[in-house]
Design brief:
Elements (H helix, E strand, L loop, with lengths): L4 H11 L11 H11 L4 H14 L3 H6 L2 H8 L6 H16 L8 H5 L6 H10 L10 H10 L9 H13 L6 H14 L18 H5 L15 E12 L2 E6 L10 E2 L2 E3 L6 H13 L3 E14 L2 E12 L14 E6 L10 H18 L1
Parallel strand pairs: 1-6
Antiparallel strand pairs: 1-2, 1-4, 2-3, 2-7, 5-6
The protein binds iron/sulfur cluster (SF4).
The site of iron/sulfur cluster has 14 residues, from α9 and α12.
């Protein structure tokens, strides 16, 4: 155990975050929080966690729910494969583990959606097994503490930090040690402007001693953003809205959207729309109303989405045919709240609720 560990643990005891899953360390709560907090800011993660456990009190409740309801409760968190895997894992736990979250590192690794990081987090925080957890906060913290001159995105850097984190783990105190490191990285040793004067382990920080804090960790290569422009039709007929479901293996798999497609440079959104819609769902439409474009992003993609409220063209085909969709449905406006949507369609819907109601009359 390194000399910095005791001050770190004392700081955590006095100033660690008060989080809902830290009240009882119930393995179910720890598991849900760990999956939700990947790629999610803490405040947002806490709000989703509280809503989730109000609806799904335990593993059995998750296992018994439909995938659509799981996705609905995940809606807005992104990275929906996490939710689908969580659902599958809950069903395995219900079938093979008596409806409990196992707390053994190796057993956890056998479950869908649980990799080495999540297994270590659950095993140490819920099960108090002596395994070290290395997340983005811990990577950054150790890169500074030990003045590691490699980008943290590099495999060698991660391996080095994993060795250091495991080597300094105080036996029998993995729960506190791992959470203390994650909290210190999230609250004090932040990506920008770390609060070194408030840091309980500043005396051991090599980057601080050498004046390299501002250049640690070294930046890795970033993927250049890809800009996409898409169109989508909110087709209204007989008071219902047409939705199609994305295939399970696609991005946003299992979520619902409006038919449309991607534009190429030079395409006019309103001119291109009918052809894109016909190809996507076999319906011939005419535009009734233009919705102000919305934008959203996923991974390195930046999407501008042009939406239009449409009707089926008189005399055009009325039977949908969606070659790339998992399913389609005509849905009453009052039932839309039951369907999970990716960010783009969700923003379009929010922008046009009144227009849709008027059009469907
Ligand atoms: S002294 Fe500063 S850079 Fe070093 S670990 Fe503490 S907050 Fe991070």
């Amino acid at each position: 155990m390194g000399a910095f560990v005791q001050p770190l643990l004392t700081w955590f005891r006095l100033q660690g975050r008060q989080l809902p899953w830290r009240q009882s360390y119930d393995p179910y709560h720890v598991w849900i929080s760990e999956i939700m907090l990947q790629q999610t800011q803490m405040e947002r993660g806490v709000a989703y966690f509280l809503r989730w456990v109000r609806r799904f009190a335990d593993v059995q409740a998750v296992a018994a729910a439909s995938e659509q309801e799981i996705l609905k409760y995940w809606e807005g968190l992104g990275y929906y494969a996490r939710a689908r895997n969580l659902h599958r894992a809950a069903r395995e736990m219900a079938a093979h583990f008596g409806g409990r979250v196992p707390c053994d590192y190796q057993t956890l690794l056998s479950l869908p959606g649980i990799g080495p990081y999540t297994a270590a987090a659950i095993a140490s925080v819920a099960g108090q097994q002596d395994v070290a957890v290395v997340d983005a906060n811990v990577l950054r913290l150790f890169a500074r503490l030990f003045d590691i001159a490699r980008p943290v995105s590099e495999r060698q850097c991660r391996a080095e930090v994993e060795t250091l984190a495991a080597g300094h783990l105080p036996v029998g105190q993995a729960r506190a040690y791992n959470q203390a490191l994650m909290d210190l990285g999230g609250l004090i040793c932040t990506p920008k402007r770390p609060r070194c004067t408030d840091c309980p382990i500043a005396a051991w920080c090599l980057a601080r001693q050498r004046g390299t804090v501002s250049v640690r960790p070294l930046p890795g290569k970033r993927r250049a953003p890809v800009y996409l422009t898409r169109v989508a039709a909110l087709i209204v007929a007989d008071g219902r809205l047409f939705l199609q479901q994305r295939p399970a293996a696609a991005v946003w798999g299992g979520l619902w959207e409006f038919p449309g497609g991607e534009l190429v440079e030079g395409d006019s959104p309103s001119t291109a729309l009918p052809g894109k819609v016909l190809a996507a769902c076999g319906l011939s439409v005419e535009i009734r109303q233009t919705i102000p474009p919305v934008s959203h992003q996923y991974t390195h993609h930046r999407v501008t989405l042009h939406g239009f409220i449409c009707r089926i063209r008189a005399g055009g085909p009325r039977q949908p045919n969606c070659p790339d969709a998992a399913a389609w449905q005509w849905v009453a406006l009052a039932d839309l709240h039951r369907f999970p949507f990716p960010a783009g369609p969700r923003k379009l819907l929010a922008a046009v609720r009144q227009g849709l109601a008027a059009e469907s009359c």
